[in-house]
Specification:
It contains 15 helices and 16 strands. It has helices at residues 48-54, 63-68, 72-77, 81-84, 97-103, 129-139, 157-177, 196-208, 225-235, 253-261, 271-276, 309-313, 316-324, 328-354, 358-369; strands at residues 5-11, 18-24, 27-31, 33-36, 58-62, 90-94, 107-109, 114-117, 124-127, 143-145, 185-190, 214-216, 245-247, 266-269, 280-283, 286-289. The strands form 4 sheets. The chain has an 8-stranded parallel sheet with strand order 4-14-13-12-11-10-6-5. It has a 3-stranded antiparallel sheet with strand order 1-2-3. Helix 6 (129-139) crosses helix 7 (157-177), helix 10 (253-261) runs parallel beside helix 14 and helix 10 (253-261) packs antiparallel against helix 15. The longest helix is centred in the C-terminal third of the chain and has 27 residues, at 328-354. The chain is globular. The structure holds the ligand O=c1[nH]cnc2cc3nc(NCCN4CCOCC4)[nH]c3cc12. Residues 94, 97-98, 148, 150, 189, 217-218, 220-221, 248-249, 269-271 line the site of ligand SQO.
Length: 374
């Protein structure tokens, strides 16, 4: 018996989307789902109560960042991440591989692991599949990720092939090092860039190791959205229907819809929380940069179709004033709204799957939001 179980409820008749339930030791959640990112054991400016109020279920934290600060041993002594951050729902931790590649200029990849520098102090560090697994076992997230390499999307074919094969060997080492498989589900991460044969090889290798869930990695790294969709078109069908599929680092409204259409169940991204702190908000008619002077006397809510706490109680003029004066409450109001917007979008996607009309929903949403039609 593994820590999590994916229950397939129904498939959309118009697309490759599916409605499911992800059962975890900290609750069961409908999929497709969006997972807010709380890199340093907090979804920036949000309290656990506010996250629950808006319908957040699974949230993310980052192995690399928590390893550096406060250190995984402190989190272990606190009783694990759930206790430490007072979050009694589900948690997923990324394995640190992506952060090493995205944060550290100097890095040396060897079979054993990756040598790199602490992005804060410059001190030399080393992460291996075993170390990344030990850290995640100490953090105690319900879902943890295998230690992988996320190469550039346009990496040279032979490099990409070597990287996929090493990531598969690392995945097996993570499984062997994993000390709590009944409490924490370890997901494998499919790599291979934009190469169909390498994606097939990576999926085959990982499926042979029988993970309880699979992530599609190596995407949302700057490649055009058409490339991401093309890769998903031939990758998600390779993955077992009865296991969850997680597309890492994806969180714009169009990509969430297009990922769900291609059979993705789980998404995460810093986008909604990051742009909120810059005063940029997602609304049903497109992005709204509330700090723009044109909203100085606009007393409407951010989004007239939204019933979130922010939109029920505050105006664009007030939020603009807060962002303009660098008031933290302004960041909180925009963050609350953006996360609520994406969590509600996932509910609309799930309802469209129930009604076998996700393609129609995509067309309506793209039209209203202002995304160009395919
Ligand atoms: O292959 C991966 N392996 C393990 N973790 C990942 C995390 C990932 N996160 C992204 N993209 C995040 C892109 N963000 C979009 C918003 O702005 C910040 C970056 N792509 C990712 C790929 C991987």
């Amino acid at each position: 018996m593994t820590a999590i179980r994916y229950e397939l409820i129904k498939k959309d008749k118009q697309t490759g989307a599916r409605l499911g339930i992800l059962h975890t030791p900290h609750g069961s959640y409908e999929t497709p789902m969006f997972m807010p990112v709380g890199t340093l054991a907090t979804v920036k400016t949000m309290s656990p109560e506010e996250l629950k109020e808006m319908g957040a279920g699974v949230i993310l934290s980052n192995t690399y960042h928590l390893w550096l600060r406060p250190g995984h041993e402190i989190v272990r002594e606190a009783g694990g991440l759930h206790k430490f951050m007072n979050w009694d729902q589900a948690i997923l931790t990324d394995s640190g591989g992506f952060q090493v590649f995205s944060l550290s200029k100097f890095r040396k990849i060897e079979e054993e692991g990756v040598h790199f520098r602490n992005h804060l102090s410059g001190e030399k560090l080393f992460l291996s599949p075993e170390k990344a697994t030990e850290i995640q076992n100490a953090l105690g997230a319900d879902i943890m990720m295998a230690f992988d390499e996320c190469p550039p999307f346009d990496a040279e074919y032979n490099y990409m092939k070597q990287s996929v094969e090493r990531t598969s060997r690392w995945a097996e080492r993570c499984l062997k090092a994993h000390s709590r498989p009944h409490d924490q589900a370890l997901f494998g991460i499919v790599q291979g860039g934009g190469n169909e044969d390498l994606r097939k090889q990576s999926a085959r290798d990982l499926i042979s190791l029988d993970f309880p869930g699979y992530a599609v990695g190596g995407l949302s790294v700057g490649e055009p959205k058409e490339d991401m969709n093309r890769v998903l078109d031939f990758t998600t069908p390779l993955l077992p229907e009865n296991k969850p599929r997680y597309l890492m680092g994806v969180g714009s409204p169009d990509s969430l819809i297009d990922g769900a259409i291609r059979g993705i169940d789980m998404f995460d991204c810093v986008l909604p929380t990051r742009i909120a702190r810059n005063g940029t908000c997602m609304t049903s008619t497109g992005r709204l940069v509330v700090k723009n002077a044109k909203y100085a006397r606009d007393f409407r809510p951010l989004d007239e179709n939204c019933d979130c706490y922010t939109c029920r109680n505050y105006s664009r003029a007030y939020i603009r004033h807060l962002i303009h004066t660098n008031e933290i409450f302004g960041f909180r109001l925009c963050t609350y709204h953006n996360l609520h917007f994406l969590i509600k979008l996932m509910e609309q996607i799930r309802q469209a799957i129930r009604e076998d009309r996700l393609q129609d929903f995509r067309d309506e949403f793209f039209e209203q939001y202002g995304f160009n039609k395919p």
